[in-house]
Amino acid sequence: MKLHTLNPQTPLTQSNPMAFSTGIRLLRCYHHHFTFTATPSRFSGLRKTSSELRFLSSVTPPPKKQLRPVSARRKEEEAGDEGNGSVILRDRGENEGGNGGERVVLTELHKEATEAYMSYAMSVLLGRALPDVRDGLKPVHRRILYAMHELGLSSKKPYKKCARVVGEVLGKFHPHGDTAVYDSLVRMAQDFSLRSPLIRGHGNFGSIDADPPAAMRYTECRLEALTESMLLADLEQNTVDFVPNFDNSQKEPSLLPARVPNLLLNGASGIAVGMATNIPPHNLGELVDALSALIHNPEATLQELLEYMPGPDFPTGGIIMGNIGILEAYRTGRGRVVIRGKTDIELLDSKTKRAAIIIQEIPYQTNKASLVEKIADLVENKILEGVSDIRDESDRSGMRIVIELKRGSDPAIVLNNLYRLTALQSSFSCNMVGILNGQPKLMGLKELLQAFLDFRCSVVERRAKFKLSQAQERNHIVEGIIVGLDNLDEVINTIRKASSNALAAASLRKEFELSDKQAEAILDISLRRLTALERNKFVEEGKSLRTQISKLEELLSSKKQILQLIEEEAIEIKNKFFTPRRSMLEDTDSGELEDIDVIPNEEMLLAISEKGYVKRMKPDTFNLQNRGTIGKSVGKLRVNDSMSDFLVCRAHDKVLYFSDKGTVYSSPAYKIPECSRTAAGTPLVQILSLSDGERITSIIPVSEFAGDQYLVMLTVNGYIKKVSLNYFASIRCTGIIAIQLVPGDELKWVKCCSNNDFVAMASQNGMVILTPCANIRALGRNTRGSVAMRLKEGDKVASMDIIPDALQKELDKTLEVHQRQSRSMNGPWLLFVSESGYGKRVPVSRFRTSPLNRVGLIGYKFSSEDRLAAVFVVGFSLGEDGESDEQVVLVSQSGTVNRIKVRDISIQSRYARGVILMRLEHAGKIQSASLISAADADPEDEDATAVAA
């Protein structure tokens, strides 16, 4: 294939970054200059060896020059395989023929494309997408503000149509689309987009609901007073460079002489080519304070700067969760700030306890209408529960979104679900990239402030030099005028004798040793200013100018005074335009929500079978029944399975699972799947990493791992030990050792206690020991413990319970009463439950305390076929009649559950057999029993009738 095209005088070189794109433009614009001649065989050959093709690239020829042909063709003998993907240009001189004077330039195509693309990318970075660190503005924003300044749209002048401003910007400075310019103008006027708006808008400029602004022919605008003081002051005093506009018809400022770091004040966001920026806004007062701190101490650390500027301040307010993301963003330039909307809880009806969540502020850049719509969709799809109604009551006075809750809904849980499922909690990803010295750079807080200070110092120096130059020029002229006034008669005679202005000026220069400007000033002076009063004015002006010159020279010679002046001007703006902080800072580790934050901390029943099946049920699953009834089934059980334990806890509790092998596992209570009463449950092996044949024998729900709490462990063979609860605060998934067991022994009972509590232990034969917890020595986890009680042959430990410290005084009183009145039946009591379904209460006063390793006292007289199943300390809460308000839940081996009042169980002596608690004709024996306090019981169950299985 042979191409003939226009030959530029300047040959293509590898350094030309626009070669690739220019070559394409030549192919498009000058296609009528090309002649293509190719035979079918050569064309097909080119297609087969497309990797060896050469691409023609040229540059636009200068006008009115003789164009020379350039031919580009494949030269395999010259390039060979190494020239793959390159561009070959053959440039023939005018006088040489087709042979001599050729110049061939080899250029790799991918290099040309890379350089051209990088040139385009840098053009987008510098000229469109990224703000300058010095004044914090992108070119379009800078041009809008300058155009409005040129139009005289100051804060004290009337508004003008936005279309007028957009037209001015397009026609003089920014040859792009009018939509882009108008959108930028609108954003600078929105108080929910910028912390300190730069433009005062009049009309519809959009809303936080993402409503579009009115057309630019309807809206009006003018500059804010802050913009004039912060960005446009001193613009005419040679403080910044002016560069030609796009058509070189006039000048525009390359920067605005900012007095405050506008980049941090209002933030910025933009997406360029391979780079983006996202800088949060800040409070004006805090920003000036941080700048002043850096001026006084250039070596200030980030922590010291954070004392003055603790974090971003978003225009829409909200709550910033934690400072970890802020620290990272200020240190490296990248960080993640979590923002929550500001909410409040209002009680709608005190009788029904219905409440409402009021959203008063939303996170930055969140669409309020979309947020309300999202919440409504979640409620409709039943993803968000507990909400009955939602409405937006926002008006000009402020934002107010009302979310009414259903009766019984927990506002904290619903609010956490809103944080997790909607934009009511969102994150702002800081990426503080700005243009510094013509290059994009990622900077931290101190680097940004220092870059601004360096720029501001240059602005103040240039302004001082400009004022000094003007003062010196004016002083020079004033001095000449004073000389002329002192020699007024000679000056007048000299002027009258001169035949022209030029000769008069020359004579004055020669006679009075004046400069050209001084002579011209004397000639231009009017007669009315020749009076003595006017001379005094010139003398005073000269003194003032000399003082001003002296101060300016002193300022330019002292960096300290320059920084002091910068601080004074920034503080002046702060005092005039300061507003209180809108975004609140909450000192938390992070704003991330976990599962526990959206789960109500409700009471729950845990049922565990001997074969390791566990299920979670609601506390009202089993209604209150009368003593002696059959009970209610706990649900299906596997073949040859029976109930092992049954307890009450809360969803947020951390449940400790103790196995028969002395190992302890941990899992949150809410992770146990909730199911109905009739369900079989979930195998514990799906929740815990149990080994083969390992059984869970005891479960302890823990709300808080307090330092003064202990776990008392009791084995089947009667070994007991006490371990600090802190040892179990962090348990790995495979479990840790809780107690060291001898062969044939197994861990059976674990209770939580403190040193002031008492331990009550009972054997299967009904022997009881009461001992203070302080008598039990605290040991480590990997120990066996000591002997708890001396067991007779064939006897084993049956149960253990704790007498809390709260009952100790009551216990002391009962012991005193027991000494005076041997037949006292006052509480607290020991509740005995036998395997055959019998039970009784015995006053604790009937038992004396004793040390460990004793036989104990008789607490229950059993028949030969009966044994003790469980023992409890009751009497924690008493009714008005002095009776117990607790309830006991009995579980048989077949899974039948009976829940009865403790007060219905009669108080008897230590040797009595007791009364029947649960009929077990077809239900085997009592497998486990659990105690429910009056606070745990559901009040609605007090009048419930008996329900048979």
Key traits:
949 residues, Topoisomerase II, domain 5, Gyrase A, domain 2, Topoisomerase, domain 3, 4-stranded antiparallel β-sheet, 4-stranded mixed β-sheet, 21 helices, disordered C terminus, DNA-binding, topoisomerase
Low-pLDDT runs = 1-84, 92-98, 935-949
Q: Calculate Rg over CA atoms.
A: 45 Å
CATH class of the domain at 127-258: Alpha Beta
Number of helices: 21
**Helix-residue proportion:** 25-40%
Secondary-structure blueprint of this entry?
Blueprint (H helix, E strand, L loop, with lengths): L2 E5 L11 H11 L10 H9 L19 E5 L3 H4 L6 E6 L11 E6 H21 L9 H12 L9 E2 H11 L5 H10 L11 E4 L17 E4 L1 H8 L9 E3 L6 E3 L8 H5 L1 E4 L4 E4 L4 H13 L5 H5 L12 E3 L2 H9 L1 E7 L1 E8 L4 E8 L6 H13 L6 E6 L8 E5 L5 H11 L3 E7 L1 E4 L2 E4 L2 H42 L1 H10 L3 H12 L3 H9 L7 H25 L2 H19 L6 E3 L16 E7 L3 E5 L14 E2 L9 E8 L3 E6 L3 E6 L13 E2 L12 E7 L7 E6 L3 E6 L11 E2 L9 E7 L4 E6 L3 E6 L13 E2 L9 E7 L4 H13 L8 E6 L3 E6 L13 E2 L9 E7 L12 E6 L3 E6 L13 E2 L9 E7 L17
Parallel strand pairs: 12-21
Antiparallel strand pairs: 1-2, 2-3, 3-4, 5-7, 6-7, 8-9, 10-11, 12-13, 13-18, 14-15, 15-17, 16-17, 19-20, 22-23, 22-25, 23-28, 24-43, 26-27, 26-29, 27-32, 30-31, 30-33, 31-36, 34-35, 34-37, 35-40, 38-39, 38-41, 39-44, 42-43, 42-45
Helix pairs in contact: 5-6, 6-7, 10-20, 15-18, 15-19, 15-20, 16-17, 17-18
In short:
By secondary structure, the protein is α+β, with helices and mostly antiparallel strands. The protein contains 21 helices and 45 strands.
